[in-house]
Amino acid sequence: AEEETLTYGIWTDNVLTGSLVIVTKRLPVGQQALPKFPDEKYDVNSTSSGGTLITKTAKDLSDNITMYSEALMNGFKPVASYKEVNTTDSQYTLKARYDGTRYFYSYNGGEEKKVRIKTGFMDNEIMYSIVRCYELESNYTTTFNLVDPTTGNKEALSVAVTAEGTQGGFEYVNGSGESAMAAASTRTLAVSFTRTKAPVGKSLVVYYTVEDKTGDTGFYLTGDPAKGGGTNRSSHVPVMIQENNVKYVLSKVIAN
Fold first, then answer.
1. Which is it for the CA torsion 40, 45, 46, 48, positive or negative?
2. For the chain, is the Cβ count within 10 Å smaller at the N or the C terminus?
3. Is pLDDT of 214 > 60?
4. Dihedrals φ, ψ of 131, to 5°?
């Protein structure tokens, strides 16, 4: 699809506390920017997949924005990102950009800092999305390297498919405007994200729909043929995200 919208309920200790909307848009090759910083241009030159813009908006039950983020990708690589958090427990902003083997970031509007990075580096705001681009059905495994912006320390996450299950109950709308509810038998793969060094803590787990290449048992959506999205599948849809005591449960997915 040329554009995809995912809507989740946020459950904290099994109590509904808010919503999360993730919008993913394909971008053409050329100069692109984060919407928050339209004058700061970046080169998107991946001839195979162009660019991608991912925006996330979380709200509480009173419709207050508790988190907002933007992330720009060139092909499968992070280019720049911005995040602001405003909850009772945490308030901060983080702006980041990537330049070859260097990661630049500014925390709470402070001075921009630089960290040397290696191949396999990943931005926090896109790691759940980038996994969708790979062949999860072949026991996908990799390692992501990230930076903790509060300390500047680098950490590694081991990423691996751990189990297969089923989960449905969400509404889906394809590019032709047809709507239905996903069956409870919709197949999923659990992917864990685990720190490689102590303190390891509890793994983050994301449950993605299975993409069956025959189309018989897998789940995917096609975009609007009029927009060129008819052949671009929305697959490996993340139906649930488990982060410690917080769960994000998919309620609706729209592909355009």
1. positive
2. C
3. no
4. -60, -30
Amino acid sitting at position 2:
E
For 175-239, the DSSP string reads TT--EEEPPTT-EEEEEEEEESSSS--PPEEEEEE---TTSSS--EEE--GGGT-TT-EEES-EE
* H or E stretch covering 128: helix 127-130
104 and 80 Cβ atoms separated by less than 8 Å: no
Which residues make beta-bridge pairs with 35?
Answer: none
Q: Can you give the pLDDT at residue 223? A: 73
Do 39 and 19 contact (CB within 8 A), yes or no?
no
SS (H, E, C) 144-173: EEEEECCCCEEEEEEEEEEEEEECCCCEEE
Poorest-confidence range of 63-67, 89-93, 95-99, 197-201? Answer: 197-201
- Give the span between the Cα atoms of 239 and 176, in whole angstroms: 22
Dihedral sign, CA of 109, 114, 115, 117?
positive
Q: How far apart are CA 150 and CA 96, in angstroms?
A: 13
pTM for the model stands at 0.94
C-alpha dist (Å) from residue 133 to 34, 61, 90, 137, 140? 22, 32, 31, 11, 11
Output the furthest CA–CA distance in the chain (Å, rounded).
Answer: 53
Cα separation, 9 vs 70, whole angstroms? 20
Angle at 234 between CA 209 and CA 229, to 5 degrees: 165
